[in-house]
Amino acid sequence: MELTNETAQLLQPERSVVLLWDIQNILVNNIFNKEEFMEKNLKIIKVAREKNIPRFFSKITPLPERFESPVRKILFKNRFASLKQVANGFDLAISTVENDIVIPKHTPSMFIGTHFEQMLRNAGLTTIIITGIATEIGVESTARDASNRGFFPFIVSDAVSSFNKEAHYRSLENMKSSSIVLSSSQLIDTWRRI
């Protein structure tokens, strides 16, 4: 997508936040484009840090078994079982630094069960730049919730991924109706110009 002057203005550092969705070891090791995905995310983080754009890392944090969602227990049983078997599987695959914010979460939306929305509103941030895993699950859910709440979601197409390549591309197409989908080079070029 080509950015217009109006959409490029939404990427002003003082109004933006980068949300790195579930970039955790076990997920990164199972996506179809691991090398490109990691390279693009590291570039985005580097420039975001230079521009002092807040970085939020979401982190899957299972609840104790008895209190976990029955829906998630049934639908994601095999996926969570494999996560628990890998040493350090829930650890972030990207090192955080001071001022990076890690938010544990229990659902596939950053807006449910966290203080993310309150933090953004308190800081006057209106643009959410989303990267991470999985495109068709948490990335898309969070993007839809963001636009429904009056935030501007930007999806970085080469910095999101999935276990399922077809679902990933289908989700990117779906999100074009409710989000702005752009490449990491478009994002970084825009940040460098403003």
Structure description:
With 194 residues, this protein is α/β, with parallel strands linked by helices. The chain has a single domain (5-193), classed as Rossmann fold. 43% of the residues lie in helices and 19% in strands. Strands 3-2-1-4-5-6 form a six-stranded parallel β-sheet, sandwiched between helices. Helix 7 (135-148) runs parallel beside helix 8. It starts with a helix and ends with a helix.
Which SSEs are present, and which pair or pack?
Layout: H1 5-9, E1 16-21, H2 25-28, H3 34-50, E2 55-60, H4 70-75, H5 77-85, E3 101-105, H6 116-123, E4 127-133, H7 135-148, E5 152-161, H8 165-175, E6 180-182, H9 184-193
Parallel strand pairs: 1-2, 1-4, 2-3, 4-5, 5-6
Helix pairs in contact: 3-9, 7-8
Provide key terms for this protein.
194 residues, alpha/beta, six-stranded parallel beta sheet, globular
Which spans of ≥5 residues are poorly predicted at pLDDT below 50?
none
What is the CATH class?
Answer: Alpha Beta
The CATH topology is Rossmann fold
Coarse morphology: globular
Number of strands: 6
Strand order of the largest sheet: 3-2-1-4-5-6
Characterize the main sheet.
Answer: 6 strands, parallel
CA radius of gyration is: 16 Å
Q: Spell out the CATH superfamily.
A: Isochorismatase-like
Overall mean pLDDT stands at 92
